[in-house]
# Entry
Amino acid sequence: MTTAHGKLTVITVATKDISPYTKNSSLERSAKTHDTTGYAPTGDATTYAGGLRDAKFTCSGMYDNTASTGPRLVLAGQEGNSLAIVRKVEGTGTGKPQDAFNAILEKYTETNPHDDMVTWSADFQVTGAITITTQP
Amino acid sequence: MDLDAVSQEIRTALGGITGLRVPPWGAEQIQPPAAIVALPERINYDETYGRGKDAYEDLAVVILVGAPETRASRKTLAAYAAGSGSKSVKAALEAYAWSTCESLTVRWCDFDAAATYAGTALLAAIFHIDIVGKGT
# Structure
């Protein structure tokens, strides 16, 4: 077992590598649960059955107007569209894990503080399954 | 970013202010008014994923004018500390088209009425600068 530093993370959106402009990202996987408790349950305890899986993906970073791969060029105007995302949580390398999924861009935000760098953030709703593989 | 290259380019930018001398680091003698490009307080590596961006935090540029107690020194220093104008350090640096970094912001300026250089007492203004550029 070993730890991994976040700086190695690689994020591509629609095949564009936005990693150099990204400071933070998270993939939240979840599932619905269904109450299956009947009358007189054992130990008076509620029971559940697992339901459909769901996921949210968020990422954010430092604004950059680099043509074709900067966050504005990749994300602005794509709200409501489904985009192919690849997330390499430990970076690029043979044997390292990779998540691939399609996600709908729900929100793209650019924030301009008066005393700091312009930043951006994006919220995605994952649609369909997340394909977990190992990088070749 | 290369610290020495950035410092040299800051010297070039400051050299655009008429009458302001910009001696190299370590000059044994200076003739005021003069600007000394000092070191940043720190370098923040890995501001984004994949060595995308680094940041120099609080790089100091020290402007040294004449004797601390004279009215002329104060007046000269005020012109350099102004937010705009032909002598404005902030205006000169932020209008410059940088090639060694991506963005440079003069955050604030403070003053030292007891500065010395090579044993000579001088009135000083210290400009605090934040710089962002590529990590590689």
